[in-house]
Write a structure and sequence with these properties.
The protein has 406 residues and is α/β, with parallel strands linked by helices. It contains 11 helices and 14 strands. Strand 11, helix 7 and strand 12 form a beta-alpha-beta unit.
Length: 406
């Protein structure tokens, strides 16, 4: 589809629009383009007009995230690509990949372990050794030279791991000794995940410090900020969940207990690098990685209230159709919301910005397969199709060789 340019009324508005089927500007009998049409035709034409306005303008309004001035409302979502060294060091190939996508403005990196025991998968990057910092500095410099900004996502995998995937071969950790039900990929092939070690309070405190140190290391590497990953079934999400967190101490039992670890991590990171350089990603109700959240609403309402007090750069919300909860959290969050709808068409994402549900929208496979996504969308040029066979691991193929618009 080729997008047509139209003026946008009330650019930057935050209120929710009524459904398009309820909009009939000008009535059916008054002067203007709607005169002489019946109500059904008016409604259909209103829907088309609203859609054209949404597609042509919503994504291209400038935005501010933390201290960053961004040229539009698109963000590159974090995506695991498994192309670092076995020691978790980003390479020049990684730097090229991110720099190619710098036109997206804000790039959120793949999940990056804050400590050795935080690694879940093979060939994922870390940000806790001097060599890893040097590797990320190469990435950050390349992104900045290309005109973009980089937030490094801090992700502790928790129980979604295997001793074969970690530097010291230790047992994975979790809130409670509850193993996941599925297999995990290792260099020796798919393996069952072992029963994790239930973290002691001392180990929880040490992990909070790992996040703090990793955030400082990200700043030393030249990143613009960090995103704390509290979703998708990894360690912070495990503490929020019903099935993995069976604790009865201060880190479980009550809603306040379930959110405590995530809030402590956020406080530690903000204390180290500042709120304007810190974002948090959540995925309420997401069952990925064998997570159960029977009633996520009250837990995430409490979490969002606690995080809002920190005045973070943004809340990155993953929604897989739970629009009621997404709207409630949007209203509860006083700052910037980045919304991710996995698999959604670009038109739906633009509509989320137009209605105020999101301030910005993050894109994953669209960015993966289209390093020049912004140029393609602006020009209405057909998009490249992603190649799932090259998503995880490998070389430059399916990583840095997707074609640009001629």
């Amino acid at each position: 589809m080729r997008w047509r340019s139209r003026p946008r009324p009330e650019a930057g508005r935050r209120e929710y629009l009524p459904p398009a089927s309820d909009i009939a500007p000008g009535g059916t009998d008054g002067p203007g383009p709607w005169a002489g049409y019946g109500r059904g035709a008016v409604i259909l034409r209103a829907e088309r007009e609203l859609r054209e306005i949404t597609l042509s303008t919503a994504l291209w309004v400038k935005a501010t995230v933390g201290g960053l001035k961004l040229p539009h409302r698109l963000v590159m979502a974090p995506m695991t690509r498994n192309r670092s060294t076995p020691d978790g060091i980003p390479t020049q190939l990684n730097a090229t990949y991110y720099a190619q996508r710098a036109a997206l403005g804000l790039l959120i990196s793949e999940g990056t372990q804050p400590c050795a025991d935080g690694q879940g998968y093979p060939l994922t990057p870390g940000i806790y050794t001097p060599e890893q910092v040097d590797g990320w500095r190469r990435v950050a410099d390349s992104v900045h030279q290309a005109g973009g900004h980089l937030f490094i996502q801090l992700m502790h995998a928790g129980r979604i791991s295997h001793p074969a995937n970690t530097p010291f071969g230790r047992q994975p950790v979790a809130p409670s000794a509850v193993p996941p039900a599925h297999l995990i990929f290792t260099t020796a092939g798919p393996q069952p995940m072992p029963v994790p070690h239930a973290m002691s309070e001392e180990e929880i405190h040490a992990t909070v410090d790992h996040f703090r140190h990793a955030a400082a290391a990200a700043m030393a590497a030249g990143a613009d900020g960090v995103e704390i990953h509290a979703g998708n079934g990894y360690l912070l999400h495990q503490f929020l969940s019903d099935n993995v967190n069976q604790r009865t101490d201060a880190y479980g039992g009550t809603i306040a207990g379930h959110i405590r670890f995530a809030v402590e991590v956020a406080h530690a990171v903000v204390g180290e690098i500042g709120a304007e350089r810190t974002g948090v990603r959540i995925s309420p109700g997401n069952t990925f990685n064998d997570i159960i959240e029977g009633d996520p609403g009250p837990v995430y309402a409490a979490l969002v209230r606690a995080l809002a007090a920190l005045e973070l750069a943004y809340l990155h919300l993953v929604s897989r159709g739970e629009d009621g909860l997404a709207m409630a959290l949007r209203r509860a969050w006083p700052g910037t919301v980045i919304l991710n709808r996995p698999g959604a068409e670009i038109e739906a994402r633009a509509a989320d910005v137009e209605t105020g549900l999101a301030d910005l929208v993050s894109v994953g496979t669209l960015a993966l397969a289209n390093p020049d996504l912004v140029a393609r969308l602006r020009a209405g040029v057909e998009l490249n199709e992603p190649d799932p066979a090259t998503f995880y691991g490998g070389d430059h193929r399916g990583y840095t060789d997707y074609p640009y618009v001629p």
